[in-house]
Amino acid sequence: MFNGKSKSDNPVEFSSGSNAASLISAGTTLKGDITSNADLRIDGTLIGNINSTAKIIIGANGSVEGDIIGQQADILGKVTGTVTVKELLQIKGSSIINGTIKAGKLQVEPTATFNGNCHMNGVASDKAVQDAKFTKPEKATTLVA
User: Fold this and answer.
1) CB 103 within 8 A of CB 85
2) Would you say residue 137 lies in a domain?
3) What pLDDT score was predicted for residue 28?
4) 3-state secondary structure of 48
5) What distance in Å separates the CA atoms of residue 53 and residue 34, rounded to the nearest whole number?
6) CA-to-CA separations, 117 to 11, 33, 109, in angstroms, rounded
7) Residue 144 domain-assigned (yes or no)
8) What SS3 class is residue 132?
9) pTM of the entire predicted model
């Protein structure tokens, strides 16, 4: 619509059939927290937290400095904070995540980078998502078997 690219050029599709998705476009910096019941795509920079009951997409040029809570998430950009996803979290391309991941299911591409802790339990409970609080990432710890 704006840049002449067709929908098929977009590697990530929103999950809902409605056109109610929100977009923070490239070149935009937003400071503050976002709460949404619709799909959300970040191609710019967000300094704050995201709390959504739908799918969250962080584009290849997107950056989030804060915590993310959502139903599903696809991350292609950079995230510093805790990512809590009830269903599937996909870490794609040359994405970088620094912080803690809590997800029902996790898919990581070989070119992605993740530094931090990961907690999975097959299906992340509603309680785990509700209990997620916007806090700074925990310090990494070393576990010895």
Assistant:
1) yes
2) no
3) 92
4) coil
5) 12
6) 27, 23, 17
7) no
8) coil
9) 0.72
Stretch 32-50: mean pLDDT: 95
- Using only C-alpha atoms, the chain has a radius of gyration, in whole angstroms, of 15
Cα separation, 109 vs 93, in Å, equals 6
Q: Are strands 22-24 and 40-42 parallel, antiparallel or unpaired?
A: parallel
7: in domain: no
For 98, residues 6+ apart whose C-beta sits below 8 A from its C-beta are 79, 80, 81, 115, 116, 137
Asked whether the CA dihedral 34, 39, 10, 75 is positive or negative, the reply is: positive
Total domains present in the chain: 1
Task: Tell me which residue of 16, 41, 19 sits closest to 30, measured CA to CA.
Answer: 41
Pairing of strands 96-108, 113-120: parallel
Q: What span, in angstroms and rounded, lies between the C-alpha atoms of 38 and 86?
A: 15
Reported as a single tens digit per residue, the pLDDT across 57-74 is: 999 999 999 999 999 999
5 occurs within a structural domain: no
